[in-house]
# Entry
Amino acid sequence: RLRPAGPAMGSLGRCLARSLLRGQPGLCRPPGPRCYGSAPPELQEKTLVLVKPDAVQRRLVGNVIQRFERRGFKLVAMKLLQADQGLLDKHYQQLRQKPFYPALLAYMTSGPLVAMVWEGYNVVRSTRAMVGDTDSAVAAAGTIRGDFSMHVSRNVVHASDSVETAQREIGFWFQRNELVAWESRDRDYTYGP
# Structure
């Protein structure tokens, strides 16, 4: 027996329930805004994700990208590069006086890394949750670090920790013209026009 499409179900649940009752699963065409509630551009955030040299060497780049795509985030910039000390000094400015900084610098310059910018609603906080704890020993299973990291000093990825930090870090790694503004139409292909 189908439960009534009440307020507890939310707009997407109500829309899908109406579609099922009409015998049209997945087709949501009520008047007004779309069922999935795509966020307006002003609510979209961008975040920086670095796939670190250990993950590139272990060929985990595709696994990392897949997790973001499955979550529905949009890739707007990506490049493979060999980071130099000047770039890393800017990126890790707050860590430069720490005793472990020389080892971090050696690690981050030990091979190529992949820099990416992902866009979406609440992408900064969601990315931090997807990435997991910095220390692989306590990173939850199901997170990127929990699944792939072997040691706190080889923790697979970096992710910006706030919207402000993301804006600053993206500016270190990418020129403005390297960010590609494109319209994602996947929801139209999934849910119909």
